[in-house]
């Protein structure tokens, strides 16, 4: 019996190799290998291995930690395999064969189709369509059946206040019952169905049964037009609609008992008459709280309510691939950062899909891009890449589907405040730093070995620290706008110009508290509402400005470093706090602006009735401040018997279709609402 050594691996490489990390194809067939011969410590050095032949051996299973992050083709024919679930450690696997393993059945085929999201060929057959059905339709049907089984037979068995023993008991009964009674598909797949049902049920329970968080949140409920008024006392009504909060490691989760609606500031809580129903009125958002998650804790501590969360951005959808969910019209996966970690969260389920940690880092910003990467046989496939940066001045580049941080760029010697990718050039990344510079990088496209070359294309000199940056939608390759500690600036970023280091081209003036125009103020919120309208704060407490980019920039007077007055279109009424770094965001498709405050509330502005007037070349400024359409109030949460107080909303965003709203806080809580 041959034992695996470094020398053997080098000899069996195709072609022969002198270093383990250079091996891409490896033939270990016909060596009488047993499971114990596959040494994870040795295999972990084969980081670029793409094809592995283990056929004609004596393997009964795979070790759980072989660490082959780039494995695409695996041959296990003629072994003694009894289980396939350990193959999930090879997420990029595209071709798999395990014929003549007498203990494996059709049920195992279905298991690997579910576990390996990139699998195309199984035992020589194209399984793409069947695998898509297993991963999506089958999973959706089973999830529906599992949830219905809980609601019908077990939900009422759980008391309002329950002990750990009660939870353990009902969990045991539910898992046994659901595996026995939930049936789907042919009987030949009953083992696979039970396996998936158990998996789905355990996930469901982990997000439904935790340690209870008490709440006294009394959220009034706005009634539907056809809803009858209740005769309940105010106390009874409040108890009926109050959400129940649960906490578990590592996240806190909210599960509302009854669908609620949040009021606009105008407090229009009464039913409308039929005549009023036909008048044009701004829509009430009716957002339902889904989850309150504590997933950025230092050292995974449940006691950490101090880590600040700073940046979040929704993952773009790919044309195809494992991460696309055809049920929804836009991505429901959001990347969040704060403290030492970056998390990927499914907004619908509240599940933390992935977590990336750097113990010595504090992450401030994340951004997505989609790159056409070479996967095998010179074929290209689009993959989402996440850039994350923070206090160390280093940009981490993460291939999310492969769970692999493939590189870093030492972009600045001081912390990076924010990053963003160009919408027109997928490899162009802007980094804004506390060194008072904004740099433009070409991060390149990694090859199949994750080799890449990054280069600096441009440096924009700032008078003060840049806090927020935005590319002008109508000319994203020519102008960049930045909100800084001491003003709002624009640079010409056109690469045809020879000058690599550039000063600003325009600085914008805004009214101060006395109404005087000034350039010296902190701009800690900046985003485009549409192709022309910019939302920014804060030169004056209690206000967010909406102003025209084109009409401001085209002000008479040419030359470098011009000072121009912003053409104000409107002011949005906002908190009077002088607290900085509570940033804003926009949803251009829905003409909405969002901004959190120092009390844990989210201010929502529906501006769809104003944008047409503003688009006119002679559009007049709105005379009065525009109040928020709605304010989402922070619920009263308790952790370890104490209220979470002084909650600041550092950042708030929505997905492009405004289905989900995500707010990041100063107390290590990620809050998710869903528009109902």
Query: What's the architecture of the largest domain in CATH terms?
Result: 7 Propeller
Helical content band: 10-25%
Structural class: alpha+beta
Shape: globular
Q: Would you identify the regions where 5 or more consecutive residues have pLDDT less than 50?
A: 210-282, 320-329
N-C termini distance: 64 Å
Strand order of the largest sheet: 1-2-3-4-5-6
User: How large is the radius of gyration?
Assistant: 28 Å
Number of strands: 42
Which class of the largest domain in CATH terms? Mainly Beta
**Total tally of structural domains:** 2
Number of helices: 10
Q: What does the average pLDDT come to? A: 82
| Percentage beta strand | 25-35%
CATH topology of the largest domain: Methylamine Dehydrogenase, Chain H
- Please identify the oligomeric state: single chain
User: How would you sum up the major sheet?
Assistant: 6 strands, mixed
Report on the architecture of this protein.
This is Leucine-rich repeat and WD repeat-containing protein 1. GO terms for molecular function: chromatin binding. The chain has 676 residues and is an alpha+beta fold. The protein has two domains: 6-208, Alpha-Beta Horseshoe (Leucine-rich repeat, LRR (right-handed beta-alpha superhelix)); 287-315 and 331-675, YVTN repeat-like/Quinoprotein amine dehydrogenase (Methylamine Dehydrogenase, Chain H). The protein is built from ten helices and 42 strands. Strands 1-2-3-4-5-6 form a six-stranded mixed sheet, with no helix packed on it. Helix 3 (106-115) packs parallel to helix 6 (190-206), helix 4 packs across helix 6 and helix 5 packs antiparallel against helix 6 (190-206). The longest helix has 26 residues, at 128-153. The N and C termini lie far apart (64 Å). Mean pLDDT is 82; it is low at 210-282 and 320-329.
């Amino acid at each position: 019996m041959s034992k695996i050594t470094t020398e053997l691996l080098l000899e069996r490489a195709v072609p022969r190799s002198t270093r383990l990390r250079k091996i891409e194809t490896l033939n270990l067939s016909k060596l009488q290998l047993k499971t114990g011969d596959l040494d994870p410590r040795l295999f972990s050095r084969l980081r670029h291995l793409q094809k592995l032949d283990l056929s004609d051996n004596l393997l009964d299973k795979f070790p759980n930690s072989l660490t082959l992050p780039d494995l695409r083709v695996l041959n296990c024919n003629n072994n003694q395999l009894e289980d396939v679930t350990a193959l999930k450690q090879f997420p990029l696997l595209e071709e798999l064969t395990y014929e003549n393993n007498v203990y494996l059945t059709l049920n195992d085929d279905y298991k690997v189709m579910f576990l390996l999201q990139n699998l195309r060929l199984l035992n020589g057959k194209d399984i793409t369509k069947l695998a898509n059905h297993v991963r999506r339709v089958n999973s959706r049907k089973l999830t529906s059946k599992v949830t219905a089984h809980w609601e019908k037979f077990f939900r009422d068995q759980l008391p309002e206040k329950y002990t750990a023993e009660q939870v353990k008991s009902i969990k045991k009964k539910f898992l046994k019952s659901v595996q026995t009674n939930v049936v789907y598909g042919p009987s030949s797949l009953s083992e696979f169905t039970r396996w998936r049902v158990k998996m789905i049920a355990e996930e469901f329970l982990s997000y439904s049964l935790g340690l209870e968080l008490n709440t006294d949140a009394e959220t009034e409920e706005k009634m539907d037009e056809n809803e009858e008024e209740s005769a309940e006392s105010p106390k009874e009504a409040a108890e009926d609609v109050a959400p129940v909060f649960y906490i578990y490691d590592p996240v806190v989760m909210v599960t509302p008992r009854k669908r609620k609606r949040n009021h606009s500031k105008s407090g229009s809580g009464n039913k409308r008459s039929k005549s009023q129903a036909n008048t044009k009125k701004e829509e009430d958002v009716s957002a339902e709280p889904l989850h309150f998650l504590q997933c950025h804790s230092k050292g995974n501590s449940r006691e950490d309510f101090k880590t600040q969360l700073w940046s979040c951005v929704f993952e773009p959808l790919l044309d195809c691939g494992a991460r696309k969910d055809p049920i929804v019209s836009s991505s429901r996966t959001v990347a969040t950062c704060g403290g030492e970690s970056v998390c990927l969260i499914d907004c619908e389920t509240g599940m933390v899909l992935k977590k990336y940690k750097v113990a010595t880092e504090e992450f401030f910003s994340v951004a997505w891009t989609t790159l056409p990467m070479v996967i095998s046989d010179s074929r290209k496939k689009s993959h989402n890449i996440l850039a994350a940066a923070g206090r160390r001045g280093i940009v981490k580049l993460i291939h999310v589907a492969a769970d692999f941080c493939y590189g870093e760029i030492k972009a600045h010697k001081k912390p990076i405040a924010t990053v963003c990718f160009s919408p027109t050039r997928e490899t162009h990344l802007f980094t804004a730093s506390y060194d008072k510079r904004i740099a433009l990088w070409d991060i390149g496209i990694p090859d199949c070995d994750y080799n890449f070359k990054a280069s600096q294309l441009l440096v924009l000199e700032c008078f003060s620290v840049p806090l927020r940056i935005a590319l002008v939608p109508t000319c994203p390759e020519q102008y960049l706008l930045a909100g800084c500690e001491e003003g709002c600036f624009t640079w010409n970023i056109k690469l045809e110009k020879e000058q690599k280091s550039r000063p600003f081209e325009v600085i914008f003036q805004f009214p101060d508290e006395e109404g005087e125009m000034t350039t010296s103020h902190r701009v800690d919120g900046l985003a485009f509402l549409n192709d022309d309208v910019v939302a920014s704060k804060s030169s004056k407490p209690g206000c967010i400005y909406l102003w025209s980019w084109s009409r401001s920039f085209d002000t008479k007077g040419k030359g470098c470093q011009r000072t121009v007055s912003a053409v104000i279109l409107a002011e949005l009424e906002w908190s009077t706090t002088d607290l900085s770094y509570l940033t804003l965001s926009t949803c251009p498709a829905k003409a909405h602006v969002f901004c959190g405050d120092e009390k844990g509330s989210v201010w929502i502005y529906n501006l769809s009735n104003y944008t047409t007037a503003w688009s006119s070349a002679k559009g007049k400024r709105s005379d009065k401040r525009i109040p928020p359409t709605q304010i989402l109030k922070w619920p009263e949460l308790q952790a370890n018997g104490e209220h979470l107080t002084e909650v600041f909303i550092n950042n708030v965003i929505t997905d492009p279709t405004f289905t989900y709203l995500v707010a990041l806080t100063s107390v290590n809580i990620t809050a998710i609402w869903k528009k109902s």
